[in-house]
Automatic annotation (TrEMBL):
Residues 1-39, 81-176, 299-318 are annotated as: Disordered. Residues 1-23, 116-136, 151-167, 301-318 have a biased composition (Low complexity). Gene3D superfamilies: YVTN repeat-like/Quinoprotein amine dehydrogenase, Zinc/RING finger domain, C3HC4 (zinc finger). PANTHER family: E3 UBIQUITIN-PROTEIN LIGASE RFWD3, RFWD3 PROTEIN. InterPro entries: RFWD3 (IPR037381), WD40/YVTN_repeat-like_dom_sf (IPR015943), WD40_repeat_dom_sf (IPR036322), WD40_RFWD3 (IPR056527), WD40_rpt (IPR001680), Znf_RING (IPR001841), Znf_RING/FYVE/PHD (IPR013083). This is RING-type E3 ubiquitin transferase. It comes from Labeo rohita. The lineage of its organism: Eukaryota, Metazoa, Chordata, Craniata, Vertebrata. It comes from the Eukaryota. Its EC number is 2.3.2.27. It is found in: Cytoplasm; Nucleus, PML body. It catalyses: S-ubiquitinyl-[E2 ubiquitin-conjugating enzyme]-L-cysteine + [acceptor protein]-L-lysine = [E2 ubiquitin-conjugating enzyme]-L-cysteine + N(6)-ubiquitinyl-[acceptor protein]-L-lysine.
Length: 662
């Protein structure tokens, strides 16, 4: 009896137990157990054969030659394992050769001996008995595979490799064994872990011998390689985590998040447009109601005949009115405070907090083109809220700004950069230019004083105009230039505080003469001037004596000098009073200006907090001409002209509404 290796496939071999079929003494001779010397010779023979495979001087020419040598190595490994299992057997049973050649009729001979089960033969469960390695018996012809039924399935390497356990072992071995000698690589020594440029892993001594013996390609992928391409890897066991699905899911997640952000942005824009349309709808409804009321009043006036007053007939047939043109979003979060118009650049400037407060904190101004009525860009200037904006008359686009960060700054709107900054030491509430000498600028402080600066001197102020009464903040500064007027020819600065107002007459250079204006004490919130008509508009908030907001138009006057010892006195007297709502919590800046209708008429505009609207009066008659609604309380009003058309802009915390005179 002997063991043969028959090729079962191109990747594995099957051990077949065959019998000679003769009835000689060989049938009853027990199988010899190899001794220690035989096992030593088997180990030497396997090592020599492995070195022969690895260190061959010629490259494997054909696939059949390679597979033949691999089969020899597999036979040696299996023989060593079987010899180890036979050492534990005490006796080897006889195998009847007739068991390998069953009778075609299906009957067995009387003297047949059954092959013992795996539990009786050895602890390892093997039922195959092999001949001693030292014998030289001749191989018997290979029997058909179906006649080898007594052979245990555990001895079949193909079935073992095909089992799930075999697959798991093969998968584990891929990261531990050299693909040339099938031995585990080590972390040190000759058989340490190494790799080629193509990325395949081998034992260092194996791949080194492979390349030095004439193999100039990788044994696995046949890419060109040489001995200098070998690099050491400092890992004994490798395992790559398959994260392709994770990467794919992450990319899909990023795409979904991007699309969701775009959808959220579109939703926000749609909501904003819807809010604007709703505001526009409310405004149009109110205008329709007002037009109906005016129509009813006109019909009633016509029915009264010629007894109707001439002033009301003039109001009903006036030269025009303001029509809503567009609403511009200035600040999404609010915080806008003051408004100004730059004629050289043709743009409105509204103060606002930084739209990117996280990356660029502070406050600045937003440019809004008067040609397209669209915001263009944001210019950062101050670190705290801006309280005042003013332009000079030199047409140079130089903006003067005052803020609560104790500074006033000059900013060039040509380059959008700050060109000069002055530290006042206290919060600044208002500012103004000197229109008689553009080299001088004024800053109204929180303690009631006014600092005079010369733009040619960048170090400090040139003069301080100390408060004459209390130290209330200077909420407004307006300069009225000199003019050839019989009633008020002098020029100077009007400073308004909560306690009243003072006119600082500009005599010459840095010489100023103070004149206390006869205003109500404790309720003054704003003073604006109309330089051509020499009028000023004083705003009083509601109080105990007057529960409504009042805007009083006053005419400036100066008493002529009759004696050399007596100085002329500048004063003002009320001309017309306009009343609004009963609420005034904010310091709204109002406006007095010439009417676009001409004929020497003057208009007065003021914000009404009680109704969130802009009210327009005729200064000559005191009649209310228009009441234009707003979404929030109006904080500042600015009239301007573009291409021979007159406009009026009203600013709230978030929106800028523009009206055109028609």
């Amino acid at each position: 009896m002997e063991v043969e290796v028959a090729p079962a496939s191109s990747e594995a071999s099957v051990i077949v137990v065959s019998e000679s079929g003769s009835s000689t003494e060989e049938e009853d001779v027990p199988m010899q157990v190899p001794g220690p010397s035989d096992r030593a010779r088997l180990s030497v023979r396997r090592a020599v054969r492995r070195r022969h495979i690895i260190g061959s001087n010629t490259q494997f020419s054909t696939h059949e030659e390679r597979m033949r040598r691999l089969r020899e190595l597999i036979v040696d490994n299996l023989a060593e394992r079987l010899s180890g299992s036979q050492d534990a057997q005490r006796s080897v049973p006889h195998v009847n050769p007739r068991l390998m050649d069953p009778d075609p009729s299906g009957r067995h001979h009387a003297g047949d001996v059954n092959v013992p089960t795996s539990d009786e033969s050895s602890p390892t469960g093997s039922s195959v008995s092999t001949e001693s390695e030292g014998t030289s018996a001749a191989a018997q012809p290979e029997e058909p595979r179906q006649e080898s039924e007594p052979v245990s399935e555990s001895a079949d390497p193909v079935s073992a490799a095909a089992s799930p356990a075999g697959e798991a072992e093969a998968d584990d071995g891929d990261g531990e064994n050299c693909s040339i000698c099938f031995e585990p690589w080590t972390s040190a020594g000759d058989h340490r872990l190494a790799a080629l440029r193509c990325g395949h892993l081998f034992g260092f001594i194996c791949i080194s011998r492979w390349l030095t013996s004439g193999g100039n390609k990788c044994p696995q992928c046949n890419k060109p390689a040489k001995r200098g391409h070998i690099i050491f890897l400092y890992a004994r066991k490798l395992k790559a985590v398959d994260n392709a699905e994770e990467v794919r899911l992450k990319s899909r997640l990023e795409l979904e998040q991007g699309s969701r952000r775009m959808e959220q942005l579109e939703v926000a824009q749609c909501r904003q447009q819807m809010q604007l349309m709703a505001d526009e709808n409310v405004r149009l409804r109110k205008e329709v109601e007002e037009l109906r009321r005016w129509k009813a009043q006109a019909a009633f006036s016509s029915s009264q005949g010629p007894s109707h007053s001439s002033s009301q007939r003039q109001d009903s047939s006036s030269g025009g009115h303001y029509v809503f043109s567009k609403a511009v979003l200035v600040s999404q979060t609010g915080g806008s405070r003051v408004l100004s118009y730059c004629e050289p650049l043709g743009c409105l400037l509204a103060s606002q907090p930084s739209p990117q407060a996280t990356f660029l904190p502070g406050f600045g101004v937003k440019k809004i083109s008067t040609a397209t009525l669209k915001p263009s860009q944001y210019v950062p200037i101050h670190s705290k809220q801006i309280r005042g904006l003013a332009f000079s008359r030199q047409q140079d686009g130089l903006l003067l700004s005052a803020a609560l960060d104790n500074t006033i700054k000059l900013t060039s709107l040509m380059t959008n950069t700050v060109v000069q900054a002055y530290n006042t030491g206290r919060p600044v509430w208002s500012c103004s230019w000197c229109h008689d000498n553009n080299n001088y600028i004024y800053a109204g402080l929180a303690n009631g004083s006014v600092l005079v600066y010369d733009t040619r001197d960048t170090s400090t102020y040139v003069q301080e105009l100390a408060p004459l009464r209390s130290s209330c903040p200077v909420v407004s500064l307006s300069y009225i230039p000199r003019a050839a007027s019989s009633t008020f020819p002098c020029g100077g600065l009007i400073a308004g505080t909560l306690e009243g107002g003072c006119f600082w007459e500009h005599v010459e250079g840095t010489t100023y003469t103070p004149h206390i204006l006869p205003l109500e004490s404790g309720n003054c919130t704003d003073i604006q001037v109309e330089p051509d008509s020499r009028h000023c508009l004083v705003t009083y908030r509601p109080g105990r004596a007057n529960p409504s907001l009042r805007c009083v138009l006053m005419e400036l006057s100066r008493t002529p000098q009759t004696d050399s010892n007596q100085q002329p006195v500048c004063s003002c007297s009320p001309v017309q009073t306009f009343t609004a709502g009963s609420s005034c919590k904010l310091l709204t800046k109002n406006a007095v200006f010439k009417s676009p209708a001409g004929e020497g008429a003057t208009l007065v505009c003021a914000g009404d907090e009680a109704t969130n609207s802009t009210m327009v009066w005729d200064a000559g008659t005191g009649a209310l001409l228009q009441k234009m609604p707003a979404d929030l309380p109006v904080l500042d009003i600015c009239p301007f002209e573009v291409n021979q058309s007159s406009y009026l802009a009203s600013l709230t915390e978030k929106l800028l509404k523009v009206y055109k005179w028609e």
